[in-house]
Amino acid sequence: MNQTEKGILLVSCPDTEGIVAAVSTFLFSNGANIVHSDQHSTDPVQGHFFMRIEFSHPNLLEKLPELEAAFAETASPFSMQWSITATSKKPRVAIFATKEDHCLQELIWRWQLGELHAEIALVISNHNHFRELAESAGIPFYHVPVTKDTKAEATAAHFSILEENRIDTVILARYMQIIPEQLIQRYQNEIINIHHSFLPAFIGGNPYQQAFDRGVKIIGATAHYVNEQLDEGPIIEQDITRITHRYNVTDLKRHGKDIERIVLYRAVKWHLEKRVIVHGNKTIVFQ
Amino acid sequence: MNQTEKGILLVSCPDTEGIVAAVSTFLFSNGANIVHSDQHSTDPVQGHFFMRIEFSHPNLLEKLPELEAAFAETASPFSMQWSITATSKKPRVAIFATKEDHCLQELIWRWQLGELHAEIALVISNHNHFRELAESAGIPFYHVPVTKDTKAEATAAHFSILEENRIDTVILARYMQIIPEQLIQRYQNEIINIHHSFLPAFIGGNPYQQAFDRGVKIIGATAHYVNEQLDEGPIIEQDITRITHRYNVTDLKRHGKDIERIVLYRAVKWHLEKRVIVHGNKTIVFQ
Amino acid sequence: MNQTEKGILLVSCPDTEGIVAAVSTFLFSNGANIVHSDQHSTDPVQGHFFMRIEFSHPNLLEKLPELEAAFAETASPFSMQWSITATSKKPRVAIFATKEDHCLQELIWRWQLGELHAEIALVISNHNHFRELAESAGIPFYHVPVTKDTKAEATAAHFSILEENRIDTVILARYMQIIPEQLIQRYQNEIINIHHSFLPAFIGGNPYQQAFDRGVKIIGATAHYVNEQLDEGPIIEQDITRITHRYNVTDLKRHGKDIERIVLYRAVKWHLEKRVIVHGNKTIVFQ
Amino acid sequence: MNQTEKGILLVSCPDTEGIVAAVSTFLFSNGANIVHSDQHSTDPVQGHFFMRIEFSHPNLLEKLPELEAAFAETASPFSMQWSITATSKKPRVAIFATKEDHCLQELIWRWQLGELHAEIALVISNHNHFRELAESAGIPFYHVPVTKDTKAEATAAHFSILEENRIDTVILARYMQIIPEQLIQRYQNEIINIHHSFLPAFIGGNPYQQAFDRGVKIIGATAHYVNEQLDEGPIIEQDITRITHRYNVTDLKRHGKDIERIVLYRAVKWHLEKRVIVHGNKTIVFQ
Questions:
Q1: B115 touches chain D (CB under 8 A)
Q2: Which residues of B are catalytic?
Q3: Distance CA A11, CA A34 (A)
């Protein structure tokens, strides 16, 4: 018996006439009903076009290979980059953390509430602090210590843990270690970091101390994809909070946490719901 | 010689399968290129569907009657309510004001900057205060006094001024008089008011005094279409600002003005750009 | 040997000349050093004056009775209401909850981080859901069922639990039951509730449904002291979040939770730090 | 006959015990009544102390020299930097502008509403665009062209205009020229600039283009005192607005204007009300 399932089609291609008509006609004539659609063009003339369509389809999982084969023909004349995802398959997520719990707590709590479309498959940390927090939520915990001399081994351990657990997405929930290039290349646009400043202000270490020293009146946080340049990957989400001359560095850290956890949560949620398309060093985020 | 012009198609109908495909195919095969599209469904099953499409078309103004006749056939099986607007024709706007200038100033200033897609055709006031302000901006000013005994005459004057000037939209920029029912019925969903509270809190007179008396920690403003029930029309936009125990009623009024003028500006801007669809007592606002 | 301790002096009296001089001279000549001071007057002429002073004092706990006796003489000519609190004594807090965990979780988590100046002495609920949550944080849990027929017994149970545990402050963390008048009178301005709307909008039940039906563009939450009138006690804190036509009632509830938990947290934090003075139906909140 | 006048006392000194008592006793015994008082200490031990007191005094203007002489004795043992200002004397302000009118318009409009405690004595511009705008508000306009070869003459002209008009404060309302060092030194902490980014992000030219290229999700504005380092003076106020992938550089500029004008207005207002104390490269801003 048929059952209605939900799918998401992402499309990215040079802008030209007739894209929406071609795609919507394809979906309609292949039994899919458009539930929501959003699009963006950097410029109708010579620009780039992006589209995200939520659709319902009877027996999507079963028919997916067929649908993909058929769509390839529609996509080809437009030089589309595209993907079709059945939402019944949840992305598998690994969370990296160190010693600050607020981002990890927030993600676990949102996940328990059903607000994150994911399997949180495991937590990895270079410390043992969060074993209980993870395991009491039913999430396997891996302690992978990282020292100057053991970076290669740690990376190897990370790789095998992620591979064995078929991880799709890695969340750095205030993980205070540099991610090696091999990992970044293996998980292109699938590693999300939270930086504790409104980038590009206060790149690098100790951004709250930097903010204090500069005497700013707002502090912020930035969730971004990790690429080879530290703190320079495509930004997914940012937010800020107002501060006053009364706040010392400890106060900044305390208030900053509230921004960090909500900004990371939003970025992760949108990523998992396939709302984010990376284009060059920027993101299109469909709401 | 052909020239590319921009049009906006608004559609509202019961949700069902195939709407997007039908509309986008219609536009494509009639020489229109979709520049931006947004849609909303209250529920894919038994719900109501809304769509706003910006498109470009060679010689739209000339071909509009033809296009409308053709679209009527596409629209009919879906029981669509719809409109096609050529953006080269700017709506004609009348602003009503009394003695507070901040909303009027903001609208005129935005209009001079080219941020409002409108002809501001005239200012009407029950006082003479703003004659110079209006006229120095090149906007005709009409002084129509309103007293208890002259309401009928005032309404008649309003009607004839609006008709003679072919007004499409009326903005009440802190106009402190009740709008008579005939006017509301003549300009259905075309009269926008700014109320100085976050409705439905503090309906009626003196909302800042009410807010002060209640001891709230936020004040706000609400732009809404005017219907027969005072302060109960469909809300287009709202915003707020934080206040503290230090603010007296005068402070509330002063800070409130900043919210009022920006909220009214946004609502007017979106209305003029055909971003707002009224459905029952609510609005869909496409960004 | 002496040790420096921190104290908080709250003062409230009719405004007149010389209050600040009298109080600051008293503190100085009694060995207290003003660390922070804030004040407010509703009106220098005929108004009411409020002051909060943080001070440091060697051996405050030991000298408190002496200091209080001495200050009574300074206070008397000004008709002051006043209190001196040694911050080394933490208020004892009881949290009431029902079935929604976000506010309870937030308070426990903040408390574990050291961000709430309190002993969370116990959690009371009319359901058994949160036993594990409370107990795993080391907080005793009391299940007091409430049915139509057992209200009197439940109130008696509440009273004896609160008295036996020497509770100072009661937090209603989405506790979905009416608080009986005796409890309100016993804990005057010491019971804090979170209401899931920006009061005075949407008083009463189901505020998110009410907000959806009205078509507002912002939703909010309000933390207030509980008095005999439902949802009409003095407001401590409010905040809002923007919504769009895309949000159904479930979405409103989900986004509302984020506001509820942060608004309640702020109000509780400020209350516990003696930053809130109730005056009539309003609050002065010193930052 | 005596009349009550308002004064503002600003104090800045190393923190130690007894400051508040000494100052409040001085005021009380010299016939001044404290209307509002605010203070801040970077650290009670070895820190720096700041205080702002609003007081009322009969015949303040007449008695000011006497009061200052007397306060010098109170201030000396504490090594205070201090000033007493009679608010009946309004600061004289010069506004510099170039070709963008939003900041200039906002300041003039606020001033006409009585929201700026100042005499706007003149507008200076390197272009002639705003002559009518200034003069129709009754403000003298000076056109001082600036070219590569005439910088020295322009600076000389600026100096003599400012001196002749006894200017206290200079506002750079999007004045697109570098301010020469002599002017900065002559008007220490009395020149306020608006930079169109949330500093320290996007220092230098074309910040909106920089923001677009980096793909940020928020843009902002910063009002700061001008010192010798470009865009690095003490920050008075900052604010931001959210943006999306849909905004091109023109959109960023348009939305940015709304932030710029409100941020500059706030900073100017606070400066004129003597709410801002500069300490090193930071500001204390008393609300």
A1: yes
A2: 231
A3: 14
CA C239 to each of CA B8, B217, B242, C197, D236: distance values in angstroms, whole numbers, following the listed order: 37, 8, 8, 9, 25
**pLDDT score, position B1:** 37
Other Cβ atoms closer than 10 A to D263: 25
List b or e across A219-255, with b for residues whose CB sees 16 or more CB atoms inside 10 angstroms: bbbbbbbbbeeebebbbbbbbbeebebebeeeebbbb
**Which candidate in C195, C217, C247 is best for mutational testing of the B interface (most B CBs within 10 A)?**
C217
Residue B19 binned pLDDT confidence (cut-offs 50, 70, 90) = very high
Nearest to C22 by CA among C87, C61, C79, C62: C79
User: How large is the average pLDDT for residues C11-18?
Assistant: 94
Among C231, C239, C251, C258, the active-site one is C231
Q: Which residue of B has its CA nearest to C212?
A: B282
Q: DSSP states of B33-83 as a string?
A: EEEEEEEEES-TTT-EEEEEEEEEEETHHHHHHHHHHHHHHHHGGGT-EEE
Burial C130-153, CB ≥16 within 10 A → b, else e: beebbeebebebbebebeeeeeee
CA-nearest of B249, D217, D60 to A195 is D217
Report the DSSP beta bridge partners of residue C55: C7, C34
Cα–Cα distances (Å) from C36 to B125, C55, C59, D280, in that order, read 52, 7, 19, 21
> Which of chain C's residues have a Cβ under 8 Å away from the Cβ of D20?
20, 24, 28, 34, 37
Cβ–Cβ contact D89 with C under 8 A: no
Quote the CA–CA distance of D74 and D52 in Å, as a whole number.
16
C chain contacts of residue D25, beta-carbon cutoff 8 Å: 21, 24-25
Mean of pLDDT over chain A: 95
Q: Is the pLDDT of residue A1 over 60?
A: no
By Cβ distance, the residue of A105, A115, A246 closest to C109 is: A105
B39-48, B270-279, C56-65, C229-238 — which is least confidently predicted? B39-48
In whole angstroms, what separates CA A147 from the centre of its chain? 27
List the single residue in B with minimal CA-CA distance to D246: B287
What is the mean pLDDT of the segment spanning D2-20?
Answer: 89
A7 inside 8 A of chain D by CB: no
Which residue among C109, C113, C254 places its CB closest to the CB of A115?
A: C254
ipTM, 2 decimals?
0.93
B25–A24 CB contact, under 8 Å: yes
Contact C199 B202 (CB under 8 A): no
* CA C197/CA C208 separation, integer angstroms: 7
Q: Where in chain B is the domain with CATH 3.40.50.170?
A: 92-285
Candidates A231, A239, A251, A258; catalytic one:
A231
Q: Does B227 contact C at CB distance below 8 Å?
A: no
B285 CB neighbours in chain C (<8 A) are: 217, 244-245
Per CB-CB distance under 8 Å, the chain A contacts of C136 are: 136
Nearest CB to D105 within list B109, B246, B287:
B109
Work out the minimum CA distance from C107 to partner chain D, whole angstroms. 29
In chain D, CATH 3.30.70.260 sits at: 4-86
Options 3.40.50.300, 3.40.50.170, 3.30.70.20, 3.40.50.970; CATH for D92-285 is 3.40.50.170
Q: List the single residue in B with minimal CA-CA distance to D137.
A: B133
Chain position carrying tokens 């990282």: A146
Q: What is the CATH number of domain A4-86?
A: 3.30.70.260
At residue A152, the 3 state secondary structure works out as helix
Q: Reply yes or no on whether the pLDDT at D1 is more than 70.
A: no
Cα dihedral D263, D266, D271, D272, rounded to 10, equals 130
